[in-house]
């Protein structure tokens, strides 16, 4: 993993309030529809599933009445120090997109899957099949997103095509395309969330809501101790949720928390 963190004037990021998330899966469906992710050929084979955004179920593992569950949506973390970039032999992925988005260029990908092995968040997926849309579903494809061929790696792009469209609109209206107002560019999952659990914006811009949210005492990032500098933050007032986010495990004998690894 590179020891350098690329700094960007604009740093697009996401804040997910786990206490608001009900695990409905609307974000997953919106992501698939927006980014032309084809329906699974075999839905029972989870080893070959393809979801750019996955919702995980968390539990505090306590008996009733103290039992609690939480749901954690996990897109690509768009790491500041992405391990996937350093291992790609053909530069199919790189952190050069405006706003610090980690790009994925399917025509360059040779399917070696080194990036998948290096990603600590398991946020990359291999496309095992040629994309097929049954019936008239092909008529509903997003025209701004190219479909991917079999044998390449796919990942969340923060709906980068929406960023480009927002910039084009700003330029046409005579506004600065590099200084978008809050809400001018949001991801499909952000727009689809019925509870408003997902907030998206420029982490470096004080005028954007995410700039304030990441400074909450309840904000945390997944496996932050690894030093990947994720641009996706989570918020939860429940301590056990925050502890699981950084991979804490309870010592059965002493009851004290310890970190795995």
UniProtKB/TrEMBL annotation:
Pfam families: Fer4_11, Fer4_2
Alphabetized Gene3D superfamilies for the sequence: 3.30.70.20
GO molecular function, one term: metal ion binding
Superkingdom, natural source: Bacteria
Alphabetical keyword list: 4Fe-4S, Iron, Iron-sulfur, Metal-binding
Record-annotated membrane-spanning stretches: none
Record CDD domains: PsrB (cd10551)
Limits of the 4Fe-4S ferredoxin-type domain: 12-42, 67-98, 100-129
UniProt xrefs under NCBIfam families: mnquin_red_QrcC (NF041782)
Protein name as annotated: 4Fe-4S dicluster domain-containing protein
């Amino acid at each position: 993993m590179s020891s350098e963190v690329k700094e960007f004037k604009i740093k697009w990021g996401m804040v997910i309030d786990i206490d608001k998330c009900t695990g409905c899966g609307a974000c997953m469906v919106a992501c698939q529809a927006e980014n032309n992710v084809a329906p699974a050929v075999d839905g029972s084979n989870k080893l070959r599933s393809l979801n750019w955004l996955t919702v995980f179920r968390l539990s505090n593992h306590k008996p009733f009445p103290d039992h609690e569950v939480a749901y954690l949506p996990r897109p690509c973390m768009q790491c500041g120090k992405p391990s996937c970039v350093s291992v790609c032999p053909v530069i199919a992925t790189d952190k050069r997109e405006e706003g610090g988005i980690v790009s994925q260029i399917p025509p360059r990908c040779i399917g070696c899957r080194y990036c998948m092995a290096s990603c600590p968040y398991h946020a990359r997926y291999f496309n095992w099949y040629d994309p097929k849309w049954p019936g008239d579903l092909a008529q509903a494809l997003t025209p701004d997103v190219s479909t991917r061929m079999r044998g390449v790696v796919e990942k969340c792009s923060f709906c980068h095509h929406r960023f480009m469209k927002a910039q084009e609109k700003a330029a046409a209206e005579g506004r600065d395309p590099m200084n978008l107002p809050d809400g001018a560019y949001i991801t499909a999952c952000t727009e689809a969330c019925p509870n408003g659990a997902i907030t998206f914006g420029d982490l470096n811009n004080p005028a954007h809501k995410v700039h304030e949210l990441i400074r909450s005492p309840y904000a945390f990032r997944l496996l932050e101790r690894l030093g990947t500098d994720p641009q996706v933050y989570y918020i939860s007032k429940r301590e056990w949720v925050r502890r699981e986010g950084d991979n804490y495990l309870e010592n059965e004998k002493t009851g004290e928390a310890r970190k795995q690894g």
